Amino acid sequence: MTLTGAQVEVPADPRALYELSLIEQWGDGAPVLPPTDAAIEALLAYTPDPADHVVGVLPPQYGVATVELVAANAAMAGVQPEAFPLVLAALEAILVPEWNAFGLTTTTSSVFPMLIVNGPCRDDLGIDYRAGCMGGAAGRGSMTIGRAVSLCLRNIGGQRAGETSRTVFGQPARFGMCFGEWEERSPWPSLAQRRGFPTDLDVVTVHGGKGTFPLADIHNDDPRGLLFLLAKSMAYPLANMYLGNADNGEVVLAVNPMWAERFGAAFPEMTDLQAYLHEHAWQPLDLWPAANRDILVAKGRVGRRNRVFLTAHPNQIVPVVCGGLGSLHAVALPSFGESAMQGVAARTLTSGAR
Amino acid sequence: MSMDPQGVADAVDEVGRVLRADGADLLLVEADPKTLRIPLRLRLDRVECADCVLPPGQLAETVTQAIRRRVPGEFELLLEDPRNG
Amino acid sequence: MSTVMIRRPTAPPVAEVAAPTFRLDRPLTDLRAGIRTDAAWRSWRLLASDWEQRLRADGVASVTTVETHGQVGDTGAADRSHIGALAEAVDFAIVGLGTCGSCTSFAIADAVAIEQRERPVVAVVTDEFATHGRNMAKHLGHGNLSVLVLPYPLEARPDAELLEISAAYYPQALALLGVSRSAEVGA
After folding, report:
1. Contact B35 A131 (CB under 8 A)
2. CA nearest C2 in A: which residue?
3. pLDDT tens, A142-190?
4. What is the ipTM score, two decimals?
5. What is the CATH classification number for the domain harbouring C59?
6. In a domain? residue C146
7. Which 238-257 residues of chain A touch chain C by CB within 8 A?
8. CA distance A306 to chain C (A)
9. What ranges do the domains of chain A cover?
10. Is the pLDDT at A354 greater than 70, yes or no?
11. Chain A residues with CB inside 8 Å of C71's CB?
């Protein structure tokens, strides 16, 4: 296998390499592993795409992302070779024009790709989908796949906060966010199934999420009462989705398995659950001060009875079952708005050998 | 972290041995590492005094602790106890 | 010190190619003007409305305004299509407003789309996003795109203040478009 990337001689000592990565701005501030030829080739062995295949051109600086260059960044992140196809799938999803990488890599918003994984690979690759799935479970896949994508956006696309990215705060997901759906505890078809993928495929769905918005209730056992509160909470007044077009963007609602069971009994069909959430995901116009009200009216966001709905359609609210068995909590992943969630199936060379 | 079905089975058997002394038994229906659900069934058909067996809440807690000593991580215990009606 | 060979993880720098820019080099008389506004920014709508009146007073034949509403979806696609149509229907254009990260990116992209059709165009951004705007123009291959920089913040200023800014910066917009002196019929 012939690799063509520029070679650099670096210290073998891990600490010295870390210091060099900070000086060269190759990393994200955390230690990295050396992208040696052996490490890169081990990753390349699991994808049918050749090393010089162009995955795409990453904004904002339009760096050309070859499979080899992606592998170098995945090696730095510590991606397990079998997981490399998921990194490629995530980047392919990001590069779909409707995901709007052009806008999302430069915005003042905190938005960043959030990877949601479905399929048989979750356990083998350490994709966390149970307790601590959004941080704390420390599965190798969850910690490294998202990080690899983040490093690619930085090192290939040139997305750097304070420079090419105008993000005011950033968010923890900029280190990398990758979690799975607990499909076996979901009363509904999985996210990937709902998006048209067969259940035997490993699918990465990339959501342009602004952060993790924690929601808790310890009092209400009624599923409709709980869902009402979740809907109202997601429709918080400074949600990005009020700033633009109501038709664009999705908000992900991560539901713990205990609540999912309860919601599933009340709403066996996902479309009915989404309709119920959408029905209540609004705020009254007079919640906002006058200056904001005028803008909402001018943008045509005010519906009947002076209600301002978070989304135009129920299917823009996307429930996903994950998290631990402690119940009591859900997490909303608010949307940037001007971005459409994208899912891509990972293509893996099963033999692991070219 | 995957649930070890054998560890669950050993824990259930440990509690079952105690119950069998009173003529009851505890059956492990399934230990599913995918869903983390552990359905159990309490059998009381040979027991003369059902109330003499560990009360339902206490029984569930005893089984839970026995499993936790052997199996790390979360799980959901589903105990079918005929005394609960 | 022992060493190891690695492959550089960064993409090679993209060759900087600056597409040509275009200037009017003539008065405004009888020209067809285009203005792109953004539904997100009330302030820019007010300035654009003021500039439309000034352009008419300065003798343009027509002013066509396109307002953008989205970046993706049907709305985004329609907006990009409208920008293309605008470029074909006018002799020059003023494109705004870049006053956030993504809206600056899209304002620049729309200005570039017009410049690609060989029309003089000026992109309008606010000070906080000037560097970002110029960088985006460069990354899109139009590093010489004319950029007019307005004060920041702009949006929450009262109308009276916005109209003062409008009056002050209108001549600069004309200068960047290459309008020749005889067209400047007072500010």
Report:
1. no
2. A12
3. 999 999 999 999 999 999 999 889 999 999 999 999 999 999 999 999 9
4. 0.91
5. 3.40.50.10350
6. yes
7. 243-245, 247-248
8. 20
9. 11-207+341-354, 211-335
10. no
11. 100, 102-103, 244, 248, 338-339
pLDDT digits (tens, 9 = 90+) for C34-50: 999 999 999 999 999 99
Alpha carbon of B70: minimum distance to chain A alpha carbons (Å) = 19
Residue A121 region, left (φ>0) first, then alpha (ψ -120 to 50), else beta? alpha
Range of the domain at C88: 32-181
Q: Full-prediction pTM beyond 0.90?
A: yes
Asked if the C-beta of A262 comes within 8 angstroms of chain B's C-beta atoms, the answer is: no
The architecture (CATH level 2) of A211-335 comes to: 2-Layer Sandwich (3.30)
DSSP code at position C26 = B
- 3-state SS class at B18: helix
Which among C138, C183, C133 has a CA at the least distance from the CA of C21? C138
For an interface test with C, the pick among A105, A106, A164 (most C C-beta atoms closer than 10 Å) comes out as A106
- Are C102 and A104 in contact by the 8 Å Cβ rule? The answer is yes
Q: Do A184 and B73 touch (CB under 8 A)?
A: no
Task: Give the Cα separation of A237 and B78 in Å (integer).
Answer: 41
- Beta strand C3-7 with A7-11 is antiparallel
